[in-house]
Fold:
Amino acid sequence: MSELLAVSALILMFSLLLGLLRVLRGPGPGDRMLAAQLIGTSGVGILLLLGVLLEQPALIDVALILALLAAVAAAAFTGQAREAKHD
Amino acid sequence: MIDAVSAGLIVLGLGFYLAGSIGLLRLPDLYSRLHALTKADNLGLGLLTAGLALHSQELFTIAKLLLIWLAVLAAGAASAHLIARHARRQETGR
Amino acid sequence: MLTAQWLYGLTGCLVVALGLRAALLQSALLQRIVAVNVMGSGVFLMLIAVAYRGPGVAPDPVPHALVLTGIVVAVSATALALALVRRLHAEPGDG
Amino acid sequence: MNTPSLLAFDGLLLISIVSLAWAALATRDARRSVILFMAFGLVLALAWGRLLAPDVALAEAAIGAGLSGALLLAAVGGQQGARSGSAQNAGHADPQPAVRWAVTLLCAGVAGILGWALLESFDSSARDTLAQAVAANLASSGVSNPVTAVLLNFRAYDTLLELAVLLTAVLGIFALGQARPGYRFAGPVFDSLARWLVPLLILTAGHLLWVGAHAPGGAFQAGATLAAAAVVLRLAGHSHIGLPAGSVLRLVMVAGVAVFLLVGVTLLALGRPFLGYPPAWAGTLILVIESAAMLSIAATLVLAFLGGRPQALWQATGAAESVPPAATATPAALPEDSSGAATHGVCKEEQSRC
Structure:
């Protein structure tokens, strides 16, 4: 089972890296933000897997906080863009 | 038996994750990429948490796993909406 | 012996160097603040790597406590720096 | 456990850390740099989890995802709003190639020295002394989470002074001017999300504070999570974000330092060393100090996010001097109630913007 978890974490990390490519490539800020969102979801999955694999149940709490705050970045991003336009 | 089901769920979840990432890379524009993220990714996490929940003995942990999935689901929907609206406003110059 | 600790530790050194370089070379103030933050994260990475004792072994809690306080101090220092930048740009007659 | 797949995982994680750091620092576009920095913070949280530092991962998640990203993005928005900023920056010429090379060499040298020191420390026999000292005295510290024991007991001086540093930073921010104007209503979708996120975040903060004694968590993580709840409210466009007004806010700001000092001085008066808790009382005292510290940390982080003196602090004190007491009672009573006051705040904000 632990081997499956380790390989799963590796695959999710690979998926995160693919998202990273989109963050680096863009082209627009919206694309970057979207990819950052995907990185967040992959990160939540990785933390859950690591929590079981490394016997660190507290990592579930870390994943929970990341999940609860996952929309903050997008809201801050679109909020500030409109604020800037308003000025 | 439970191990096999849980492993199956996790592997299936990983498939959706990968599909989402590849979609994010390959699809041509922002709006279609939104699709890739919100559909596949959330299903991926859902299957993953289901697979891990089968292993957990504690009810509190299972509840937290469920909450994580719901929170990501809601956040994914909300931020996809915000990003799409932002992009449309930029295009139409409003 | 433990591959992970020196892999992460040396990456920390590299991140410190990247941050330091950008902090010295960037002219935009906001990017300099980001650079200092990246540098700090590199130091944190080094400290956590020093604390690591391998899988299944309890790590050293003292560097963890240091990094924990460091993260909170870094964010408040960042906020102060950003407020200074904002004030600088808001000064009348500056263009 | 040290399987090849875990090693490959480490490799990919480290590649993403370095490439994000590089990309965040190489770009000239401030917003791009900030988004990349936020992703960098998230990947770091994974590294903390991987290196068995869940306490640090909790703080990084709450601060990286909730506070510093929103803080930096707001600063980018402000800068792009006031075009003068970028014009001023453009005035500085880029450093000469020779200077760039010299700086790069210098930084490579610094990295080399750091790496050498690090590798030396891995071999050092003194490396485990502190960890052993903590483990030997953990039983008498009043808590079983070693990180909390270090923060609130063995090195309580550090934490006390750190709270003072936070307070000083916020006072410095206050000295620089008024808070940024509020965000506009983020739309019904995010607002309804915020309505159930905020109670959950407050619950999570309470949970983290409580479990901090025996599991990863504590005042810093709880305070940062509480502050993130306020950031969510602010982003949703609410003007009341849970900060009390006037003198209550001042009290909350100093509560951490004050309770800490009070405990220390009381112990001193009872003939014990400063902050040297009696083992039987240590657990309770730590919880009391942590509760006060959590409130102070949350308040200072939120105030730091606002980037200046909040209106609440001003209005309430100004009103107390000039307006009859009946009028001052309302603003002080309102902010505690999150749902009712929040809707009220949205309407007010919308009107003033229109």
